[in-house]
TrEMBL record:
Transmembrane segments: none
Biased composition (Low complexity): 643-661
UniProt KW Membrane keyword: yes
Listed name of the protein: AP-1 complex subunit gamma
Top-rank lineage group of the source organism: Eukaryota
Family: Belongs to the adaptor complexes large subunit family.
SUPFAM superfamilies: ARM repeat, Clathrin adaptor appendage domain
Organism phylogeny: Eukaryota, Metazoa, Chordata, Craniata, Vertebrata
Annotated GAE domain residues: 673-786
């Protein structure tokens, strides 16, 4: 077979390929030639072929068949072959490959080689792909090289030791003495490797950390020498003397000074010197200053030094490099809670970053601006945030609106300002607000009793201007329904007087109901507002009745149910309509720290005795404890599911007496709700339901009902029950032991329970039956019941 082309020629041919298929063909032919030559004896081209194979590997093509060739070249006495072999091992081998174990002995021999360059190859390979087993075997060799006289070898050995400590942390004790001695070296490469090694040791072992805290004065002197040294061509980078070593030393000082007063005091003067003498006009200087700031903020530094660090970050905000501005705001975000006043001095610069074109910088500036809001600057800073909201990217609007709502709720100077701010946000970005914004704003409006007239006028003007913002329309409809009489009266001192007629208000609500932009929830708000206006106006009640009756056949079930219930109020219980549609009481939040987006329980203020009949309360769970309003009023024979609320407000507190309150409200009609039940077992077509029929102070009657949905009858049904020792159980005879197919019948069994100690009730039921000639037996544990059981 003819020898393959040279490496440079192969690269030229591959780059000249016009299609991927052509490139693949060249590589496949070359790999085939390389394989063939690997099988031959030593022909002097092994390193040449492996070099070409490594290039193929860099292009993403498989090159695993060259692993054993790497092992052979590493064992070669020739330096040029050993160099390519080690390079191939670093690229083609890792600790998961079995072939990596074959080079351990070769690396050990090369670590003792007379040539420093061969030792360097072994150290680099071990630091790159050494496994935990290799690290344990070769750790004594690395410790020996750390004490060598050659600086070139010592810096390589220090970095190799870092890899070993990461792989096998317990080896840190072996390298600690040698690492301490390396701090006295003059070579910057050795010092850099030593500082990296000490940093790794301190992060992984608290005892080593305490030991190296004694070296803080030595590190401080080393750092001062770098800061105050003159120009050195060998180490100078943009006017900074070895910024890489300075950054590493500062990082180590940060670890050593954390939560330690003595170490922190020893480095305070140095940090002040670095912060004042380092030029930040170049990237190298900015890197040193940034690391200085992180160190100052992490150790127990003086207050003046912390202010100096914040001022450095403030200077970074004026830098033209967006990366520097980004890391500056990221750092300020971390310290704004502890050094709030110092960060406040740079508020103007931070707000200017909201206008940056970069999305990441803009997001960081928004988060920092929201964190800077306080009771002192709420008015001025909120103007900037509202201005930003009008032009911010769509992906930031939800976060911006949420932040504005939280800040306004915490620091609002007045309720009117709070309402105006939220309405401004809804007008600007109403489609991006969270779902809880509407009930939160309604709660705010109800508490601001002196602003009801002002709010309803402002929301009415917003409603007739634009009905596309659903959240704003919902709040406006709610306010018009509750305070429509104030709107029609037209006596509002807070705004310019506007004469609004009943027809105008009803036209606005009817527009919302008929608009294709209105969601079902928005139509529900508008329909309820229209119904509530029937008690607040005098001349258009018939129009309201006709509007409500139209939606009695609406395709939306919720809207249809509301309309049918409202029609029933008009027709049969018109004398109760005024009391049912009375204004909702003021709702107070139970926790003063409750903010938009957080879950906090709310309580409804206790009603006066004379207003006990002004609100209909439906318990939300279980829903079938209260019959439908139509059923109570003698309507359809088939009950509907109860509506969550008759009004557009949030539901009241659910309690066990809700059904009784409703009956009292409607004149004491005697209706017995159906007992609730839960499904406790469902398998093989057999369903077992538990139902609580009656309950006393210490006793309860439970009925177990079994049904069959399969094609064949279920026979031999038996039910066995077990309860805790403190509970007495009596099982009545079942109604049968055969469950008819297709759900055509059922088997019931009554269980009497007596719980004198009122312990938490649990029942374990064993179900046995025969289905299709096979016997089935299952056990279920019942921990929850349809109603409260003691």
């Amino acid at each position: 077979m003819s020898p393959s082309v040279r490496l440079q020629e192969m690269i030229r041919v591959i780059r000249g390929a016009r299609t991927q298929g052509e490139e693949r063909g060249v590589i496949q032919r070359e790999c085939a030639a390389i394989r063939a030559q690997f099988r031959q004896a030593d022909n002097g081209t092994r390193s040449h072929n492996l070099a070409k194979l490594l290039y193929v590997h860099m292009l993403g093509y498989p090159a695993h068949f060259g692993q054993m060739e790497c092992v052979r070249l590493i064992a070669s006495p020739r330096y040029n072959e050993k160099r390519v072999g080690y390079l191939g091992a670093m690229m083609l081998l890792d600790e998961k490959q079995d072939a990596s174990l074959l080079i351990t002995n070769s690396i050990k021999n090369d670590l003792s080689h007379s040539s420093q360059y061969v030792q360097s190859l072994a150290l680099c390979t071990l630091a790159c792909m050494g496994s935990a087993e290799m690290c344990r075997d070769l750790a004594p060799e690395i410790d020996r090289l750390l004490r060598a006289s050659n600086s070139y070898i010592k810096k390589k050995a220090a970095l190799c030791a870092v890899h070993m400590v990461r792989k096998v942390p317990e080896l840190g004790e072996l390298f600690t003495p040698a690492a301490r001695s390396l701090l006295s070296e003059k070579n910057h490469g050795v010092l850099h490797g030593a500082v990296v090694l000490i940093t790794e040791l301190c992060e992984r072992n608290p005892d080593t950390l305490e030991q190296f805290r004694k070296a803080v004065p030595e590190l401080v002197l080393m750092m001062k020498g770098l800061v105050m040294s003159g120009y050195s061509p060998e180490h100078n980078v943009a006017g900074i003397s070895d910024p890489f070593l300075q950054v590493r030393i500062l990082r180590l000082l940060r670890i050593l000074g954390r939560n330690n007063d003595t170490a922190s005091d020893a480095m305070n003067d140095l940090l002040a010197q670095v912060a004042t003498n380092t030029d930040s006009s170049k990237t190298a200087g900015s890197a040193v200053l940034y690391e200085t700031v992180l160190t100052v903020m992490d150790i127990k530094s003086e207050s003046g030094l912390r202010v100096l660090a914040v001022n450095i970050l403030g200077r970074f905000l004026l830098n033209n490099d967006r990366n520097i501005r980004y890391i500056s705001m990221t750092s300020l975000q971390k310290i704004v809670q502890t050094d709030h006043n110092a960060v406040q001095r740079h508020r103007g610069t931070i707000v200017d970053c909201l206008k940056d074109q970069d999305a990441s910088v803009k997001r960081r500036a928004l988060e920092l601006s929201l964190a800077l809001v306080s009771a002192v600057n709420i008015r001025s800073l909120m103007k900037e945030l509202l201005l930003f909201l009008s032009s911010c990217p769509p992906e930031l609007r939800a976060h911006t609106t949420s932040g504005i709502f939280n800040a306004a709720e915490r620091y609002a100077p007045s309720q009117r300002w709070h309402i105006d701010t939220i309405l401004h946000v809804l007008t600007t970005a109403g489609g991006d607000v969270r779902d809880e914004t509407v009930p939160n704003l309604i709660q705010l409006i109800t508490t601001a009793t002196e602003l009801h007239c002002y709010t309803v006028h402002k929301l009415y003007r917003a409603l007739i201007t634009d009905i596309s913002v659903q959240s704003l329309v919902q709040v406006a409809c709610w306010c018009i329904g509750e305070y429509g009489d104030l709107l029609l009266r037209g006596e509002c001192e807070e705004t310019e007087p506007v004469q609004v007629t009943e027809d105008d208000v009803l036209d606005a609500l009817e527009t919302v109901l008929q608009s294709h932009m209105s969601s079902p929830a928005t139509r529900g708000f508008a329909l309820t507002a229209t119904m509530k206006l029937s008690t607040r106006i005098t001349h258009n009640v018939d129009r309201i009745r006709s509007i409500v009756s139209i939606y009695g056949s609406c395709i939306d079930v919720e809207l249809q149910q509301r309309a049918v219930e409202y029609n029933a109020l008009f027709k049969k219980y018109d004398h109760m309509r005024a009391a049912v549609l009375e204004r909702m009481p003021v709702i107070d939040k139970s926790s003063p720290g409750h903010t938009n987006g957080e879950s906090a329980g709310g309580t409804i203020k206790e009603l006066e005795p004379t207003k006990l009949t002004q609100e209909i309360v439906f318990p939300q769970e279980p829903s079938n404890q209260v019959c439908d309003l139509l059923d109570l009023l003698g309507g359809s024979g088939e009950p509907f599911q109860p509506s969550p609320s008759l009004s557009s407000t949030a539901p009241g507190p659910a309690s066990s007496t809700a059904g009784g309150d409703l009956l009292d409200l409607l004149g004491g009609l005697d209706v017995t709700p159906a007992p609730p039940s839960v499904t406790v077992y469902e398998k093989n077509g057999v369903t077992l339901k538990l139902q609580t029929d009656t309950q006393t102070d210490t006793g309860m009657t439970v009925t177990l009902t079994a049904t069959n949905s399969t094609d064949g009858d279920i026979t031999g049904l038996t039910l066995q029950a077990a309860v805790p020792k403190s509970v007495q159980l009596q099982m009545k005879a079942p109604s049968g032991d055969v469950i008819p197919a297709h759900g055509l019948g059922q088997v019931t069994q009554t269980v009497l329970l007596n719980n004198p100690n009122k312990v938490s009730l649990k029942i374990r039921v064993r179900v046995c039956y025969t289905s299709q000639s096979s016997v089935c037996q299952d056990t279920v544990q019942i921990d929850s019941f349809p109603s409260t059981a003691w």
